[in-house]
Design goal:
Largest sheet: 8 strands, mixed
Low-confidence stretches: 1-7
Oligomer: single chain
CATH topology of one domain: Rossmann fold
Mean pLDDT: 92
Shape: globular
Number of helices: 13
Radius of gyration: 21 Å
Strand content: 15-25%
Length: 395
């Protein structure tokens, strides 16, 4: 998610209703801390702040996407994103003969609507289009978007509360992994600590303690090898996302999991110069690094370690079938020719389209920071989206 600016000036104050909402969640997290002897892992804090039913950032009726919200995603920026993606979906559906599409956390529903419209035009609709969405408020918005934009295709779409037992087709995860709860750690010389959250006075505070998880210990051992020498280094590890890949792999009979997110291969993620990690918060289009304030009102994200995703897929029997930047993927899927056709048809102003393309592809915008990873089962031919440049060797 792209938040336009890092602001040094103070964040806007929440209105009284939002503040009351946040305080309610704050007292629930505080209770959790008390029940756990005065501290909880940051992963637990992030889980409650984002996903506590009715109160967490993703689970309440607050406006998150678009101009009035906290951030904007690629499908919201331009229909060209989903139209390019549809070409990769079409290739996989053709290879499989038929299949379904399952989208995780579909935001406003824009991507689903644009994708279905384009697949319909190409005569390659999936058998069904599932959306796995935890937020009731976003489900409603998705239903409205589909009814408004593609009413004839809306019956194809159904909503799920959990993963189906068997998946045949495509699983799409656009900006899903970055919002999964992460464990934070800090390294000081030869000591490795986990960063916990406590409560003092009337605010949440960072604490440190022993590593809570064997897999965290293993990962930190690997990270230390990348860092050579350490005097102080903070970062995070996303174990939840590795479990999630394993869960999907377990259910994917045949098809592809396509992950779109911002992040790096491991050696770039845990670079010696990136000493404070990648944790970032988004509140009303301002980006700042303090996850312990405004619980329930701000998004909390961390960049994605794509090497960890590739390993999790590989260890679960999936093939790592492609990895590249968003720019290379969109260009390989025909961004230039789709944009030219749009401009020729006069449906859009050329300027508007050129601005959309810039935001999707420029290295200073989303083009280089966002990566696409394909994990497949039972699909061998080279994938369209990675035909221009494939960076699997960088993983």
């Amino acid at each position: 998610m792209i938040s336009p600016h890092h602001h040094k000036d103070p964040l806007p104050l929440p209105n009284p209703a939002a503040l009351a909402h946040s305080q309610k969640l704050q007292s629930i997290i505080r209770e959790d801390i008390e029940q756990n002897g005065g501290q909880i892992s940051f992963a637990r804090f992030m889980e409650l702040a984002l996903y506590k039913p009715g109160l967490g950032y993703y689970m309440s009726g607050l406006h998150k996407l678009g101009a009035a919200g906290d951030f904007i995603t690629a499908p919201e920026l331009s229909p060209l994103f989903a139209r390019c993606l549809s070409r990769q979906c079409q290739q996989v559906l053709e290879l499989l003969g038929s299949g379904e599409i399952l989208e995780f956390g579909a935001g406003s529903g824009r991507m689903a609507a644009d994708l279905l419209a384009e697949l319909d035009r190409r005569g390659q609709l999936p058998e069904r289009y599932f959306i796995l969405e935890l937020s009731a408020e976003l489900r409603q918005r998705q239903q409205q978007t589909l009814q408004q934009q593609v009413p004839h295709l809306a019956p194809k779409v159904s909503w799920l509360d959990r993963l189906p037992d068997n998946i045949q087709g495509l699983v799409l995860a656009n900006e899903v992994c970055d919002a999964m709860p992460v464990h934070c750690f800090q390294l000081e010389d030869e000591h490795s600590w986990e960063r916990y959250v406590g409560y003092e006075g009337d605010s949440f505070v960072w604490k440190k303690g022993p590593l809570s998880h064997a897999r965290l210990k293993e990962r930190i051992t690997e990270i230390r090898l990348l860092l050579k020498q350490v005097n102080r280094y903070e970062s995070e590890v996303n174990l939840a996302m590795e479990n999630w890949v394993a869960e999907i792999a377990h259910r994917l009979q045949q098809g592809m999991l396509l992950i779109i997110d911002y992040g790096f291969p491991r050696q770039e993620y845990y670079h010696p110069d990136r000493t404070t990690g990648t944790l970032m918060c988004h509140y009303r289009h301002r980006a700042h690094p303090d996850p312990l304030i405004l619980p329930g009102l701000q998004d909390i994200t961390a960049h994605v370690d794509f090497t960890a995703l590739a390993e999790a897929g590989h260890n679960s029997g999936l093939r790592v079938a492609g990895y590249c930047s968003q720019t290379d993927f969109l260009l390989a899927c025909g961004l230039d020719e789709l944009a030219a056709a749009e401009i020729a048809a006069g449906g859009y102003h050329a300027l508007e389209i050129s601005n959309q393309i810039k935001r999707l592809t420029l290295p200073s915008e989303m083009g280089e920071l966002f990566k696409i990873l394909a994990l497949t089962r039972g699909i061998d031919p080279p994938l369209l989206g990675f035909s221009l440049r494939d960076r699997r060797t960088r993983l």
